[in-house]
Structure formats: structure tokens, C-alpha cells
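pinning this so it doesn't scroll away 📌
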Amino acid sequence: MSSLAVIGALFAFPSAQADPAPTVKSIRASLHKLEAMSEQVNQIGVRTKQTQNEIDDLSDDITASLATYNVQREELGSAIAQQQMDAPLGPTVSLFGSGDPDRFLAGLGAVQALNSTRADALEQFGESSRALKNRRAQLEDRLADLKKDKKASDKTRQEIRAKYDKIKAQIAQLSPEDQMALDGTIDLDFEPVASGRAQKAINFALAQLGEPYSWGGTGPGSWDCSGLVMKAWAAAGISIPRVVGPQYAAIRHISASQLQPGDLVFYSSMSHVGMYLGKGRVIHAPRPGRNVEITGLGSFSKYGRVG
């Protein structure tokens, strides 16, 4: 080997390896992970709704507590003003004009001339002041929680959009045959028949066939997987949780051999849910870019019955 060849070999860099070509299997795995992230966003949404309800309740409590506080404060202030005229208290009385509850209470505590009736009023006022302070602290905590959850939700949504753009590009690389295999849409060639409320849930779900998937969609007009089954069973008069994992936890678990129309079917990862229609058919909201559709039971491996 010549000296130039040796030098060239020493300084040669290995060529960058290209990403492996996408396959139906790899894309399905990526979509499952994306669905799991979407369900995390849904769970945050449930939590933020609960937090907002708590904030509203705390705000109402604070308004009521503040009204009570102000009434008690005015009554005590009037009593002390009268006592100041009857028997001057000196510079301590200047504290009573403070808008600070703690300073105001400190001033009252310094007054030794209060009679037993006013002492009772002072105790009640102290309780109101402490309750008001606690409610305000709780409100600040819940507002901080709400801000934190919204920030986490926004961040995850951005990650979902970026990852899905990458997956769309991978899907475009598949052959037409593989793209059809990925979607797995099946025509419904029979009329699903169920008993009682299950039939109402099925009818609602079937009425949404062809409507688009959307992240966090709970209708009308667009859906994600858990939003569709939640609203379908709500139409039947039964409330189930918003998110896939809690939905599975809230219903009775059954085996594949026990499946009946209206039962819910889940991925083992708890990233996706659909509704069983019978004869191996499932209605579900699959992913962005697709519509509510009928598919096979293949990828679903956990099952449950509502009611």
C-alpha cells in the first residue's frame, strides 16, 4: 500500500448510516407510542378540569369568607372606636385601621380592656381570618398546579405534532399495499345486535363513521379513541372515564371468548381503545389523517364490559 493510501485510510471517516427503511410493524409501534402520549395529554386535561373546578370552589369560598371577615371587622372596629371614646387606648388604636389581618389581630390582642363579649367576637374574627388566609394559600397552590399542567400539556402536544410529522413521512415511503395493510379498514357486512344500553352505545359509535380523528377529540364532529367510546356510552346513559387506562380500570374485565357487541377492546399498552361490534369487528378512531372506521380485532388484546 502506498503512503498516500495509508494516510487516506487513517483519516477516512465511516459513512453515516441511514435510518432503516420504515415498515408496517415499525410505524404501528411508533403510532402506539404516539397514542400513549396523546392519552397522557388527555389525562392532564382531566386533571386540569378538576383543578379548575377546585379553583372555582375556592374562589367562591374566599368571596364568602371575605364578606364574613369584613362584617366581623367592621363590628369590632365600631366597638373599639366606641371604647376609645369612653376610655382612650393610646397609640395601639392606630393598628385597627390596618388592612393587614395579622396586624389588625395583633392590635386587638394588645388591647387589655376588651370585655368578654368582645373577646368572643375577637375569637370568631380570628377564626375567619385564619380560614381566609388558608383558602388564599390553597388557591395559590392550585393556580400553580394548573399552570404547571398546562405547560406540560403544551410541551407534550408539540412533541406529538413533531413525531407525527415524522411518521407521516415514513408512511409516505410505504408501498400502496403496505399502506393498506397499515390502515386495515374493513367493511361492515352485518348489523351489530346487542342488548339494552350496549345497542345504544353501538348505534352512537356507528353514527360517527367517517368523521375525522383529532387529538383530544370528544365530538361532535371529530374524535380520538377514548373520546369516542366515552361519548358512545354516555349516549347510552352510562358514564365512563375519559382516558384509556382509567376506562379499562373502571369496567369488568373479560376474556376474548366472552366478547359481546358493545364491549370495549384495548391495546395491551393501554394506548388505544375501540368498541367491539361482533364477528371480529371493532369500531374505533384510529389516528390523525384517518376517520372513525371499522377494523379487525387483531391488535386488541384486553377486553372489558361496561355496566
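📌 and the second one:
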Amino acid sequence: MVDPAQLHVRVLGESRIDSPLGALLPAHGTTEHYVDETDRVLLDDTLAMIAARAGAEVPSFEPGGARRRIFFDPSKIKVGIVTCGGICPGLNDVIRGLVLTLNNQYGVSRIIGFRNGYQGMVARHGRGIVELTPTSVEYINEHGGTILGTSRGNQDPDEIVDCLEQLGVNVLFVIGGDGSMRGAQKIAAAVAGRERRIAVVGVPKTIDNDIPFIGQSFGFQTAYAKAAESIRAAHVEAAAQPNGIGLVQLMGRHSGFIASYASLANNDADYVLIPEVPFSLEGFLPYLRHRVLTRGHALVVVAEGAGQDYLEDAPVRLDASGNRKLGDFGVYLRDRILGDFASAGQEVNLKYIDPSYAIRSVPANPYDSVYCLRLAQAAVHAAMAGRTEMVVGQWRGRFVHVPIPLAVSSRNQVDPDGDLWMSVLEATGQPGNFAAATRLIA
């Protein structure tokens, strides 16, 4: 249960400056363009929730969008942009959207980009900065990755604030995942501790779609569309071989959204294995052999975080951010399948495909390009109005402001009892419990 207080966004101070956007709009459209400051977007819009909260404040988000009055004077501020963590489709689109909205709509002319993530904000790493202008970002949306580069790992928030102060940065936009947002939260806290007025606004990036309360993360639709192409290729390979099996491992450390959506996109998969739904290989493997025996081929899609309990004996390794590195379950599953077929004396031709890095590096598709631009616009409007320690997202069809503490408080995951997973079960025909399926085969 989310308390209404958790949805309140921190503001640096009173907005007293008339927004320059009014001069850019036709007279008949000015009123409609600005957000009504008394408006809210309901967290839960069901009648049951409203009835349960009778007489009490209903949990709701602050809406995103342009304000009539802004906190920062556009002619006097300097803006910084940083991209952190792994790459995904749409990073350059967000950078471009931020620069164009700042410059073309608000008249902000001093915009810099920090190279290689938070490392670029700590002097000893020597990463440097780059000036960002409408001209320098003109075509970057046509390319994957990020022109600013990225990195993983924690940096000292006080050193980062030292950098912001030395450079005279008034607004920092952080484009990154949950770890990067926790870093942004620490930066905002360090800023507040010094009683400085620097806005820290995040555009959440997670190819796994696992950040809560933001609707859907940018790049996700591009990712599962490209993943669906790999699934189709694996299906063609499997169908062409006697007793063929296509095994595709997709992104999804803790959340199986890409595996689920990509499998539904072309409906070729026979089995989908995700971290949220426990399974027994002792139950699954006989079922897979039965599928190949009766229909000639099979296609298995697995999210990278699935089946980690089978790899518990592997040595613990941490990445630069301190997160545990996952074992390679796709390779483990490949070997278990081959061994199981060999033990049963059954022929098998298995093709294993892991397209993860190829998917991460592609440019955004048109849907994600539009979404990235609109997220960037919402982020700029929020920052110019003095909002801080927040991320932008989309909730119930509207752009909203989500406090960073709430955005990093939990993880968005596929609900094993929800309609998405039910759709996967219906599309594949796989059982909800492979142990029970084994009994049926026997």
C-alpha cells in the first residue's frame, strides 16, 4: 500500500518567473497547454480503492507538463546531462530531446554532457565534458548507444556536487536505471545538505522494464521487437532440422517482461521460462522431449535471470555497481537439454541464440523515439519548475512525476497470477507446473 505522502515531489522553492512557452503558443492554445497545479493523477482509479479511502487523501501523482511559472531563469542557468549503466535503445533520443526542449522552448543555451556516466563528474577519472547544442545532437537519434558514453559503479556524491558547483550547473538530468537513480537520490541529498538549489531529475532507463510506477520504460518496445526477430529465426532453425530445438536467452535479470512480450509477438515459443515463475528442470525436460517427439521440433525462450537456483554453487561475482553477476543459465540449460536427450537415446539438433548485446545497441523504433522525446519534454518542464529528486514516467496515459525514493523502493515484475503471464500460458500451451505435466506425460 502506497501512502499519499510517498507521492509528493520535492520542490526547490516558489516559481515566480513567467514561463517563456506562452510567447511560443497561439493565443487560443495558451490556457490548455499549461498544467493545472491542483490537478492530480490517481495511483489506483478503481471504485474499490476510492471507497476504501473515503474521507482520507487518495494516493495520486503530480502530473507532468509545462507550468505557467517556472523556478529557474532560462537565461542564467547551466544544465548538465549524464547517462549511466548499460546501454539500451533510445538513449540518444532522450539526450536530443532534452537539448532541443531546453534550447528551443526555454532558451537555455548552456548545456553540457558528462562523459562516461558518473565517472565524468569526478575529476580524478579525467573523462571531461562536452558542449551540447541543437546542431551537435541533430542526427544522434539515428544511432544506438549514447554519444556521452556510460559506466557502472558508485561515485562519491559529495565529489559530484563539488563538480556541479565548480561548473555552475543548476540542473542535472540523470538517464539511467535503478542503481543510477539511487545515485541521483544521493546527489540530491548532498545538494540539500549544502542548502544549494540544484535540481536533480531522472529519466529512468531499464531495458528490462523493471522500474515501478513509470508505466513502461523507454527502449522496451524496441527491445522486445528485436527479440521477437531472434525468436522467429530460432524457430526457423528448429523447424528445419530433425528433432530441432531453438533455445533463445533474452534480457531479464529479475523480470521476464522481454521474454514474455517477445514470445507473444509472433507466438512461436513452446515454452517461456522467467525468474518470477519457479520451475523444475526434472519436470520440464521430459515435457520438452515429448514435444519434440510428437511435433518434430520445439522452441524455448528463457530470461537470463531464470533458473538461478540451479547455479547456486557458482562463485559469487559482483559488477562495478556491487550487484551480483548472474550465472549463465542459458548455457547451463543447453547442456542439460543435450544431456537429457542423450540419456534418453533421442536425437536432437539444438541451436542456442543469445542476442542480448545486439538488441541493446540498436536505435529506437518510431514508437520509442516518440516516447523518448515526450519523456525528455516532461523532464525539462519539471526541472524548470524547480522539481527535484524525481523521475518522469507515464501513468494511466498521462506523464507524471515520481519521487525517486518511491521509484527505487521495489521492482516491477511479471505477476505469475496476472493477465500477461496468463496470456503466455495460453499462447504456448505450457503448463503452469511442469512437475504436474510430467505426471500427465507418464
